[in-house]
Amino acid sequence: MGVEPQQSSHAYKNLPPLAGVAAMEDAMRAGLSVEQCVARLKRYHYAFKRLHQSFTARITAEPIYELKTAFSLHAWLCAEHVQAMRDRIAEMREPPLGLDVVPDESLEILFDEILAAPTTEELALGLYDVALPALKGALLRHIDETNPLADHPTVRLCRLAIIEIDDMLAFGSRAVSSLANAEPQATAAWVALLNNLLANGGGLDGASTREDRSVARKYSAKPYVYDPVPRRDERFVDPYNRGVNPEALLYDESMPTEAKVLMMFFKRLREIDVPEMMASIITQTPGKPWGYYREMSRQLWDEARHAMMGEVGFISLGVDWTKIPITWTWSLNLNTQLGPMERHGVLYFIEQGLMPRTGKRYEWEVGVASGDALAGLFQDYDWADEVLHAAIGRTWYVKEFASAKEAIAYGDECWSKVVSDFHELKERGLTEHRNWWPEVYAQACKHWGVEPDERVLNYDVTYANTRADLKEISASG
Ligand SMILES: [Fe+2]
Ligand SMILES: [Fe+2]
User: Fold this and answer.
1) How far is CA 303 from CA 118, 177, 267, 353, in A?
2) Domain extents for the chain?
3) Pairing with 56, which of 62, 331, 352, 453 sits 20 to 30 Å away (CA)?
């Protein structure tokens, strides 16, 4: 203060100083020390980690499809920022990093409460009305208080994180208002409890004066237990229906490509069961390096995108997908019958099977050949994503085995264990295995302005005797 900034006297031909990162007077401000900076970074890191945990753990049992897919995205975004924060902390003379240490008990209770929130509304309020806005506020304050030149790498991280937090908040605030129930008092009490915890911790960044408000654990008084049973909203019908085998049509050379496109859209949309299942692996596999959670979360988000590509595909063809049984027996069976490592085995077994000629390349070729530009494009990216997923599987699953062959055999064995019995499902009254194909095909034909092909219309192959990889189901399985 008091010293006139010398910005103009040394500036060269009016060029901005300091590589444009700050005005001279801002760069002359003594800001946070490395120690203060690291202390705050550890709290942002912790917040992103716990947000990632909540978003992930709540995907499976969340019935509303739009929330399931948004949680998939938001979990991945948080996982990316966790990584960025870890990398930055490691640059700042900090070993041992102590990144597994809880930086503040109040923050711990705050995120425990959000994770355990019993209703979707309370969960959404905790995430989008309290935690993320508090985190954004902390990052803005960091940018404001640190030296913009000396701590530029952190400033950059904060700015990039804020862009994505704003995306999450834009979705979240709409979600919160659409979920609002008729009990504003209960809502206010819940938000107040969370805000009291923040106040007791001196804010999310711990940079404010700590308060001493009395707060008792509410929902987290009993430790949170992950719910592995997938749920869907009312648009999803007939969950046990295995009456249409899309793979058998897709690989039937005599079938027309337009019909195959419909089956591919179905297969894509059905993939919403993969995030439901992967969320269980991630949630129930503690103690891995962060790279594991980051890459698995990326894959989980990709699978949610694949489902939405199917949704978009159907809408583009005027097909009402809510009439199609988008089943969730796969995630249900895996989540309730297998352990996390066995589930990962099944996932890897299926995905590596998609790599040969008959898999993802074939689907892309069918998409292109169909003349439906969207189908070709979606399969193009779907194929690229699956190549990435096979690599993620090699990094985090196959390495647990003596050989790739052993890893694949284990996955096959685990999958064979859970194949659900087609006839038993019907006998138990869970489904009639209704053949929904003719209606969907007829709807699309109407959109195309063509008469349905009788043979395609009459397609009637179920999963009674064949698995999705077209392997015969053994009598015992
Ligand atoms: Fe996929
Ligand atoms: Fe995949």
Assistant:
1) 26, 27, 11, 16
2) 23-200, 246-457
3) 352
